[in-house]
Amino acid sequence: MPNNLLAGKVGIISGALNEKSIAWKVAQRAHAEGARFVLTNAPLAMRMGEINKLSEECNAPIIPADATSVEDLEKLFTGAQEQLGGKLDFMLHSIGMSPNIRKGKNYGELNYQWFQQTIDISALSFHKMLAVAEKQDAFNEWGSVVALSYIAAQRAFLDYTDMTQAKAMLESIARSYGQRLGKLKKVRVNTVSQSPTKTTAGAGISGFDAFYEFADKMSPLGNAPAEACADYCISLFSDLTRYVTMQNLMHDGGFSTTGISQEMADLMEKANA
Per the record, what are the reactions this protein catalyses (predicted)? Predict the structure, then answer.
């Protein structure tokens, strides 16, 4: 039920590809809560996805931008402020891609050029966005920035390969820039570590179904769906969380703090039998 939590707020939402995307759900919830925003994605992703449909639904202009290009990002932030009539109150970074994962490279066989691309796309893009925003003084005071992460930033997960390092860097950037923007503009910067989610990107990871089922059986509340993650992001964009910053916030149904669940114990006993 909408509560106008974002009434009067404006921002940028990146990474909406299709209806399975968490960014897509965030955009829908932000619209329902009274926000106005610009949608952005890389030109290639826009051709593959359905962002025009979301743009019409949310009455949100689209500004294409390659998040690895500072020049594109400068145009994005300038254009967003022009389109929205002023400085920004929130931003979602939902950008991640690994050529190594797409090409089926295991961790011991990484192509290092592709590894650098993974880092640039999935982590350095976050720094670039924040640096451009800082230089343009693009955020209002008490603004909020959220980037989507995953627990593989802290733990080893098979087949997540170089995205593990990218997510760890993403979370580190959030802490460092959170300190900087907090002092400069009282802008808060956080990451949300989401459960395995059946998005287009998630489904591209080898063994994803095993990731998903394991986490679901380990989590007391089960895996958090994309819609619930969107709700959490909206709460972080709102004024209700003004003093939450530099945090990696677990949104995983309790997975990250569960040793073993009864379901997993039963499965192990059955397997041993």
Answer: a 2,3-saturated acyl-[ACP] + NAD(+) = a (2E)-enoyl-[ACP] + NADH + H(+)
Selection from 120, 18, 165, 136 nearest residue 78 by Cα: 136
For each successive 10 residues of the chain (273 residues), what is the average pLDDT?
Answer: 91 95 97 98 81 96 97 98 98 96 94 98 98 98 98 91 97 98 98 87 66 89 96 98 98 93 82 80
Dist CA 51 CA 168 (whole Å): 28
**Residue among 160, 177, 212, 232 flagged as catalytic:** 160
- The annotation status of 21 as a binding-site residue, yes or no, is yes
- CATH code, 80: 3.40.50.720
Q: Does the annotation place 95 within a ligand binding site?
A: yes
Q: Residue 5: inside a domain, yes or no? A: no
Cβ atoms within 10 Å, residue 71: 10
Assigned token pair, 66: 């390659």
- Which pLDDT does position 46 carry in this prediction? 77
Q: Which residue has the tokens 């287009």?
A: 200
Clarify whether 212 is annotated catalytic: no
What is the residue range of 50's domain? 10-272
Helix (H) or strand (E) holding 29: helix 22-32
The number of domains in the chain is 1
With b for 16 or more beta-carbon neighbours within 10 A and e for fewer, the 145-172 pattern comes to bbbbbbbbbbeebebbbbbbbbbbbbbb
